[in-house]
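Quick start: read one record
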Amino acid sequence: YGIFKLQKVTGPTNPYKGSYQYTQSDYHFELLRSAENLSDARVEIKAPEKSTGKLYYQRYHSDEPWGAVNLQYSNGVLFGYIPKQPAAGKVEYYLVINLPNRLVRVPEAQNVVMRFKGHVPAWLLVPHIILMVVSILLVIKSNSALKSHPSSIISLSWCWTLMSLIFLIKS
């Protein structure tokens, strides 16, 4: 269970979480780090009334100039859109929020990297997830068997071989 929790918390597709403070209120946010490339990616952040701001973005690891989009305000949220990218395209971005008495950069120091992905059909995704879980469990079993019964590693090697063949056939 701990391995799956670690993947969920640290995986590249989970939002970047943080908060900023204004007039003794905390504004918590989750910034996207993954989006499908079917349309522009909406980036939003909670903000007080009469706030404005800009979304700055650039293709990841490029020398291109930074693009800027004015954020729009609606129902306590500032939002803007990053133009869609091809599958596996990455964009780094940050927000600058104009509050009545100061500017806030979100995140404060580094940029958020967003990965664009193509749509993956469920018939392909479900077997992939099952194989990933089974392989993790097999690694755990192999490790514990190797420590307690070194001779059982041969039968586990056959399991690994079969799993590898199944994976190669599926792909």
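The chain has a mean pLDDT of 85.
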